[in-house]
Automatic annotation (TrEMBL):
Annotated protein name in UniProt: NDP-sugar synthase
Domain (Nucleotidyl transferase): residue spans on this chain: 3-239
SUPFAM superfamilies: Nucleotide-diphospho-sugar transferases
Domain of life of the organism encoding this protein: Archaea
InterPro entries: NTP_transferase_dom, Nucleotide-diphossugar_trans
Length: 327
């Protein structure tokens, strides 16, 4: 089998921290969002090649990341876009990749911004056993939240999907697709048919909805945790889940007179003095003094003094010196 890791988004909801950094590289504990996926695929002997689908703007960053981490299977497959307005949609980009790389095997397709509590190998086991197009599904337990995803209903056997609707206004359940798919080679051939029919080229769920109306599609359901790293809230929630109340202070960071609360990640070169930190991520070489930082991300080489920051993303190389509480 092959695998495709979708990493072509521009993450505008996480700007400014992702304006010049792929969101897949955001740290979550001692790893990054995308590395959990890549490491699983690297270690599974059933996966031959891993295609990381990204855009031209971030291609160099991904090239450096793959080389630095000494992966063997992943290789870049670059979309011809540099801006959100130029994107083909996820299905359009997927179809182009299948054609560009001449893929002819069963393929795992997974979003690079997914933080999953199951191993990808477990999903591959299920997909191989079922021999049907397959997706991973998670019960978000909230109907309002479910409206943001593809929502499915299952047959009594708990596997076969009998109905699927992408981003419904009135979801019939709270069981949603989590952007982890197993497609047979024959399913990939249908991408062109789907797009030729002038169907929605955006989220993969539209293609799944189209497939469910034509053949059996199965669901791999799981408990535990799942985070779609697309908003500041989901990113910080994922960090909190990973740390589970603990914190990580890099040995090259300097903290003096500082209270460190739960779920705090302070990276190398950061200098924190007379501050309180709770549920936050502080990037390398940031300077923080005489303030409280809570539910926030402070980017590289930013300086915050006598300024309480709550529920905020503070971009790189900024200086804050007056009291704010902002999103």
């Amino acid at each position: 089998m092959d695998a495709i890791v979708l990493a072509g988004g521009y993450a505008t909801r996480l700007w400014p921290i992702t304006k010049h950094r792929p969101k897949m590289f955001l740290p979550v504990g001692d790893t990054t969002v995308i590395d959990g996926v890549l490491e699983d695929l690297e270690s599974d002997p059933r996966i031959d090649d891993v295609y990381v689908s990204t855009n031209e703007r971030f291609a160099d960053a991904f090239e450096d990341h793959l080389e630095t981490n000494d992966y063997h299977k992943p290789q870049l497959s670059i979309e011809d876009t540099t801006d959100e307005d130029e994107k083909f949609g996820v299905i359009g980009a997927l179809a182009q990749l299948v054609d560009r790389e001449n893929l002819e095997d069963d393929t795992i397709v997974i979003a690079g911004d997914n933080l999953l509590s199951f191993g990808v190998s477990e999903f591959i086991d299920f997909f191989q056993k079922r021999q049907t197009p397959t997706l991973a599904a998670y019960d978000v337990g909230d109907y309002d939240r479910a409206t943001s995803y593809g929502v499915l209903e299952l047959e009594d056997d708990g596997r076969e999907i009998v109905a699927f609707e992408e981003k419904p206004d009135d979801p019939p359940s709270t069981l949603v697709s989590v952007a982890c798919y197993g497609f047979r080679a024959a399913d990939l051939e249908l991408l062109e048919t789907y797009l030729d029919g002038e169907n929605n080229p955006d989220e993969p769920g539209w293609f799944v909805q189209w497939l469910v109306d034509r053949e059996r599609v199965d669901a791999f359901t799981f408990d535990g945790a799942w985070y779609d790293i697309g908003t500041p809230e989901s990113y910080l929630d994922a960090v909190a889940w990973r740390f589970d109340g603990d914190s990580a202070i890099h040995s090259d960071a300097s903290l003096e007179g500082t209270t460190v609360g739960p779920n705090v990640h302070v990276m190398a070169g950061a200098q924190v003095t007379d501050a309180t930190l709770r549920d936050c991520v502080v990037f390398p070489d940031a300077t923080i003094a005489d303030c409280t930082i809570e539910r926030a991300v402070v980017d590289t080489e930013t300086e915050i003094r006598a300024t309480d920051v709550e529920s905020a993303l503070v971009g790189p190389e900024m200086t804050l010196e007056e009291t704010v509480s902002t999103r």
